[in-house]
Amino acid sequence: MRAALADAAPSVWWLDQPGATALKASAADSFDTPIPAEADLVIVGAGYTGLWAALQATEDRPNSSVVVIDAAAVGSQASGRNGGFCSSSLTHGIANGVDRFPGEVDRLQQLGRENLDDIEASIAEHGIDCGFERTGNLAVATAPWQLEPLRDAMNQAANYGETVSWLDQEALRAELDSPTYSGGFWQRSGEAMVDPARLAWGLASAARRRGVRIFEHTPMVDLGASGAGVSVRTTRGPIRAGRVVLATNAFPSPIRRIRRLVAPVYDHVLATEPLSDAQLDAIGWRNRQGVSDATNLFHYYRLTADQRPSGGEGPRIVWGGYDAVYHFGNRIDASLEQRDRTHHTLAEHFLATFPQLDGIRFTHRWGGVIDTCTRFSVTFGTAHDNRVAYAVGYTGLGVGATRFGARVCLDLLYRPESPLLALDLVGRSPLPFPPEPLRWIGITWTRRALERSDRREGRRSLWLRALDAVGLGFDS
Tell me, what CATH number does 421's domain have? Predict the structure, then answer.
């Protein structure tokens, strides 16, 4: 494992890819540009939620002034670090939606399909080169005990309108060859792949062409009432806003309720060197699906774009997941993005999955923060007399759901009659996490219990069953 990781740069492949410099330059205003003293709408956070909010705000109100600020750079956190799995699910999967919102799952599924269609249409309309492709997703069993739960998941997806097909071991290995696979299913609908950083940069560039001002390296330091508006105080001076969208992901928020609802959990990722033709032939993967396995501590993986037809390099494999890590006190720090033990574990699991790629090298290793909440899907709220709206808690499946989250935020601010606001998903909040040290104890015990459940062929401990009973349980 050490040899495979010996040359891996401690940086994010997506953010370092060829052409990144020019794309980053087009995504934001120059730092020398002074920030405005006021705006109709200020958006805090230049990730997907903030960028979709900016773009949709200009479509709703073309003459309004919209400003986006970010403490770092466009797409530099979760939006530029994830696996690029763009799902139609708004509830972190159908099963979670059925558990949390049983009376409106059909409606949420339809809204999710429409949302994914709108994402594809927007990408085409604005000419965003982010490799959007509806490949579907392979859900794979790596042990026989996982087959029955996967069949149940497939049948549930079919019942809610998804196009699925079961693959026995031979058929699955014909799609993607791993000796660890026992079977699985291919969900062909409702799942697409994107280049996550290019999507973020493309959304920012599209928003700027519509008049949005985007200011990087401009942290918000406070938020407060200012007459009939809101004062957004930044390190570069205050902005008086008519309305504010907080799209801060897992990062600290001036809204105390958000801090109670969200816990930052670190996810870690590897990227391989470009694959040769021989290596690709050894594993197959001609249909380029996204892949996730059926363990509680699951892996997700996918191919990057094949640039050889345009004179570039072959595809890489991006491989992440498994060891989500919470640090005491909601700690977030750049030093936590590199975790030797986790990256070595990921490399070990990769080579066990694809032994025919023995000798491959990883070129990049990174980590990033996921904003998880106790219902494992986006939650919404308002503050300051409904002049501030937020969407947080996506829990790692937000590439697609963020556009919907942005839509809801704008409706909370400007369209109180919107039918979206009547949804339980929008109107009902999850249980908050307890304060420390109970927060750390609960999250850590749950993670360890899930690991034990995987070793015990999926049998859930008393702790996990207790969480299930109070509506806090999860299995992925």
Answer: 3.50.50.60
In sequence order, the 6+-apart residues with CB closer than 8 A to the CB of 364 are 8, 9, 11, 12, 13, 16, 270, 271
- Strands 388-392 and 237-246, bridge-based pairing: parallel
Q: Which residues of 100-136 are buried (b: 16+ CB within 10 A; e: fewer)?
A: bbeebbebbbebbbebbebbbebbeeeebebbbbebb
Q: Is residue 212 part of a domain?
A: yes
Confidence of residue 453 (pLDDT cuts 50, 70, 90): confident
Residue 475 banded pLDDT, cuts 50, 70, 90: very low
CA dist., res. 365 & res. 318, Å (int)? 10
3-state secondary structure 193-228: ECCHHHHHHHHHHHHHHCCCEEECCCCEEEEEEECC
The number of domains in the chain is 3
207 and 341 both lie in a single domain: no
Sign of CA dihedral 212, 213, 218, 221: negative
**433-454 mean pLDDT:** 92
pTM over 0.90: yes
- 277/290 Cα distance (integer angstroms): 20
Beta strands in 315-424, from DSSP E residues, in sequence order: 317-321, 325-326, 362-372, 379-383, 388-392
Q: How far apart are CA 303 and CA 265, in angstroms?
A: 24
Look up residue 308 and give its DSSP letter: G
**Closest listed residue to residue 101, CA positions, set 335, 473, 371, 426:** 426
Asked if 402 and 83 count as a contact pair (C-beta separation under 8 A), the reply is no
- Greatest C-alpha distance within the chain: 67
Q: How confident is the model at residue 473 (pLDDT cuts 50, 70, 90)?
A: low
Cα separations in angstroms, 300 against 28, 57, 182, 303: 31, 33, 17, 11
Pairing of strands 237-246, 299-303: unpaired
Of 213, 216, 207, the closest CA to residue 236 belongs to 216
353 assigned to some structural domain: yes
**What counts of helices (H) and strands (E) characterise the chain?**
17, 19
With a pLDDT cut of 90, the percent of the chain lying above it is: 91
Is residue 178 located within the same domain as residue 211?
Answer: no
pLDDT, tens digit, 9 for 90 and up, residues 378-392: 999 999 999 999 999
> What domain range includes position 452?
438-469
